[in-house]
Amino acid sequence: MNIQRSRCKEIVLPFFLLFVSSVVVGQGNKNADSLFKEAEQLRQEAFTEADTLKYLKTIEILKTIIKEYPESERAPEAYLGIMSVQVNNLMGRENYRKAVQEGKEMLKKYPANAMAYKVYNFLYYTYSLCLYDYQSELETIKRILELYKDSLSSREKVQYHNTISYAYGKLGDTKIAIKELDSLSEKCEDKEFKEYIERRKRFLLAIGNKWQVRESDHLRIFCTQGSPAKRDIEKVISEHEKAYKEICDFLGVSVPVKIEYFFFSSQEEADEWFGKGTTLNSANRDLQIFALYSDKAKASVKHELTHCIAYMISHHSRQARLELFSEGLAETMVGARQGKPIHTLAASILKDKEISIRDLTDNKTFYQIGDTITYPLAGSFVKYLLDEYGIEKFKFIYKYAHPAQIYSQLNLIFKKTYGKTIDELEKGWHNKLGIQ
Length: 436
Known about the structure:
flat, Serine Threonine Protein Phosphatase 5, Tetratricopeptide repeat, 64% helix, 436 residues
């Protein structure tokens, strides 16, 4: 288990999945219900078509409910719907901030409504994984614990307190983070979670001793005393800061907080400190990277760093993004695999294997084929799209292409973005590679 916060109420589903049929009372509530269903349908269309105008229209309809039917049961739900569209669909820091304002307004108007708990949790999620505002995250979680202490289960309380500890760690207040863990250990009954708490406490206590921390302009680097990474720390910083700037400049994004890098000399060291099965050479939405750095093998500088920085385009988890684009972008930024340029390696693979872009748009198939094949193919295809059509079109499809969309829907989004179908783009890519 990696050193990540535990979120017990992460509301990231589309608001229409939260739709709850309510008893219709009077004509006003009936109209509010009708508008809510209209908004629900419009948002589903927007999702299928990657239509930002329809997302904006969805928000307009929901705001009409709030304005025209403030006493209806749908008004508080409409606030949550607006927040969800802004955070999960439109995305971007401006929309995240708008979602926060909508949430605060809802809580002011309907503090005792059943939806208030969900809104508090959505605010907490937005602060932590979209705005990276850890102080506001802390204040929100403390408010949740204050307001709902009598209705929360003991497990939920433990998870919230664990997140408080995690946020304090992010803010650099190790002492309070450890204090929270000490109190958690006494309350926690789950054996696996308790082991996680003890590992995390052990790590925090080791900071400044066994674990050394070095901060650069954009990175916070953790490595153990006497490790190859510690020995080469100046080189590590120089290489990673250079790559960071190149990736940010290319994508046209900025990262509001420092990315945390954890360097390990071996898988065994990672398992010892963060739990058995810790995935090396991986990045997560908390802007953390776990990387191997030994005398025998070193993780790619740009690959995982690209994954982290790309969260500024879309904050969605890996499960909610097409690996074709996620891994393709990371491979494009690296530029080569096995010492070969990405296009050269892709052409070599396609001469021996019949693999289509359609295969690569399905995440399950993507990994069934194997990353030694799919990664270079995805990287080459993404490089072709970037070279031929530019970064802005790619950022659009990176945000709005989703694994839940069926192939025909994805094809429409490709057509909308590039003016060509997947087959047409694939043919152009093959021509670029010299594949007939």
